[in-house]
Amino acid sequence: MTTPLVEARGLTKSFGSFEAVRGIDVEVHPGEAFGFLGANGAGKSSTMRMVSCTSPRTGGELRVLGMDPDRDGPRIRARIGVVPQLDNLDTELTVRQNLEVYGRYFGLSRAHVRAKAVELLEFAQLAERADDEVEPLSGGMKRRLTIARSLVNDPDLLLLDEPTTGLDPQARHLLWDRLFRLKQSGVTLIITTHYMDEAEQLCDRLVVMDGGRIVAEGSPGELIRRYSTREVLELRFPPGEQDPEPVRDLAERVEVLPDRLLLYTADGDAALAAAHARGVRPVSSLVRRSTLEDVFLRLTGRTLVD
Amino acid sequence: MAARVVGPLRAALLGVEAQWTWYRRNWRATAITNFLQPVLFLLAMGLGFGSQVRPGEATGGAPYAVFLAPALLVLTAVQNAMFESTYAVFSAFKWQKTYLGVVATPITPAQILYGRLLWIALRLLSGAVVFLGVATALGAVTSAGAVWGVPAAVLAGMAFSAPVVAFTATREKPEAFNGLYRFVLVPMMLFAGAFFPLDQLPAWLHPLAWLTPVWHGVELARGAAFGTLGPAAALGHVAYLAALVAVGVLLGRKYFQRRLAV
Q1: Confidence of residue B8 (pLDDT cuts 50, 70, 90)
Q2: A281: which of A229, B29, B114, B133 is 20 to 30 A away, CA to CA?
Q3: pLDDT per residue over B118-177, tens digit each?
Q4: Three-state secondary-structure class, residue B240
């Protein structure tokens, strides 16, 4: 097995008396796309900031690229790329200048960053806006520029904290496409997200975080197999008329929502036929495959935690 | 070419380079205020108001404009330092958050501070040189010694800037800058011996003036212009101003670290 690019053992982070990360073990291997999945406040961003060597850890072991962030922070940062949750571009500079100025901080020559900027502008589909100021760009363009900027040092490891939050579907798909290309070219990705479709699209392996702890780990497919069923039958009823009792034994697990019943089962069509045979008459029904969202809600619950 | 970690000096110069990239796009607005304000002061106070002041013992025997010019050089630097050390730095922490981007590179929070202070020093230097040229053209400079006013102004400006930059790094909101302007900068400009000798004020106020970088800067600049500055006094003023810079840098390092590595 290859040496992990990131290795955490019992990693913790506290802000005063608040424990954001409560002892997590993580290994990320070269070439992997690794995801941290969790609700807001689950500890994903705190973890990312420790891995990116911008936030000192409170306790536990952490090695990034085989080095200790407390001692070798600058050397590690020279080889990683960071896409923060909130864009921190210099909005009074042009798109191109943002790339060039940032690249210089990595000790790269003017000629090198000039050429690199041209390449990255192409990659991020921003070549036409190269010499425009950043301020008036759309959210999707700024996000693409932030991702382009994170690649200016040809990083071995790219950390993306909620890369597509707040973007429209077109912008998200374009970003996914770019990230997929990076992955193909061998860049190791670590992504935090609370979008399940994003995790399924991009991640080879992921952990689900809840309350600063890791509650599950595996590939999207493994997690679905382990924590959900192959299919889900959704039965919709007028609110208040959903009664789980007649169908309770038709599925491994039945979840009652205000307007529907969710039947977790290996064969949704068979369960639907059986329900009909028992005289259950839903307003509508739907058989779908289980998704990571089902896993996530099962593991972390449906209650809003803020 | 592979990315690498640069040394502290190189890092500070890269900070200056980033600021210069910004300045090249935005110099017009700042240059006009930086240039116009001291010139207006020199015209109004030095030549206008000064025409009513008879040269005497208090003005070192010189016309008021000549008496005032070295002090205005220092005041200009301190005033420029005020803006450069508050809103400009605050924005990089809070509004644009550009510093949060820089700490994700090999650059450290302390190096960001060094780069910012070096940039401010260069801004003060260029402002002082321009002002000295204008003052000379307007006939307010009569001795070669006045050239020493430029380093004196930059040093006094940095003695104000470094602690203020450190203070800015502790702010979550910009409101405190108004107070700093009203209760520190303006009194310091008015009552620290720039427009009239300190002797005109009650003796109990003198120690307060002695605390300000303005008084030390004005003593240096005016003393050099009039040839009245002894070496011991000069050394004392320089040492005091340098100490303020050092305190500001030490505090700044601590507060930049605390703010940017959380």
Answers
A1: very high
A2: A229
A3: 999 999 999 999 999 999 998 899 999 999 999 999 999 999 999 999 999 999 999 999
A4: helix
Alpha helical stretches, state H, A44-168: 44-51, 69-77, 95-104, 110-123, 139-150
CATH fourth-level superfamily of A6-217: P-loop containing nucleotide triphosphate hydrolases (3.40.50.300)
The confidence band for B50, taking pLDDT boundaries of 50, 70 and 90, is confident
Judged by a CB distance cut-off of 8 A, whether residue B228 touches chain A is no
Cβ neighbours of B101 in A, within 8 Å: 84, 88-90, 102, 149
Sheet holding A188-193, edge to edge: A80-83, A157-161, A188-193, A33-38, A205-210, A213-218
Closest approach of A191 to chain B, Cα-based (Å): 16
Number of compact structural domains in chain B: 1
B77 phi, psi to nearest 5 deg = -65, -45
Q: Quick check: A75 contacting B, CB < 8 Å?
A: yes
Residue A299, pLDDT score: 87
- CA distance to partner chain B, nearest, from residue A43 (Å): 14
Q: Does B182 touch chain A (CB under 8 A)?
A: no
Domain around B54: 8-260
ipTM of the complex model: 0.92
Closest CA to A49 of B94, B4, B99, B103: B103
pLDDT digits (tens, 9 = 90+) for B202-223: 999 999 999 999 999 999 999 9
Cα(A119)–Cα(A152) distance, integer angstroms:
10
Residue A306 has pLDDT above 80, yes or no: no
CB–CB contact A92 B25 (8 Å): yes
Residue B13 at interface with chain A, using a CB cutoff of 8 Å: no
Residues of B in contact with A102 (CB under 8 A): 101, 105
Largest CA distance in chain B: 67
Please report, for chain A, the start and end positions of each structural domain, with discontinuous segments joined by +: 6-217, 229-289
What are the pLDDT digits (tens) for A186-197?
Answer: 999 999 988 888
State the Cα–Cα distance between residues B59 and A108, nearest whole angstrom. 55
Please list every residue in chain A whose beta carbon sits closer than 8 Å to the beta carbon of residue B18.
Answer: 90, 101, 104
A74/B241 Cα distance (integer angstroms) = 33
Q: Is residue B1 part of a domain?
A: no
* Inter-chain touch A77–B261, beta carbons under 8 Å: no
Q: What is the pLDDT of residues A40-68, one digit of tens each?
A: 889 999 999 999 999 999 999 999 999 99
> Cβ contact (<8 Å) for B106 and A105?
yes
pLDDT score recorded for residue A3: 85
**Is the residue at B178 inside a domain?**
yes
A101: contact with B, CB 8 A cutoff? yes
The answer to whether the CB of A160 falls within 8 A of the CB of A147 is yes
Query: Among B17, B106, B260, whose Cβ lies nearest the Cβ of A74?
Result: B106
CATH tag, A229-289: 3.30.70
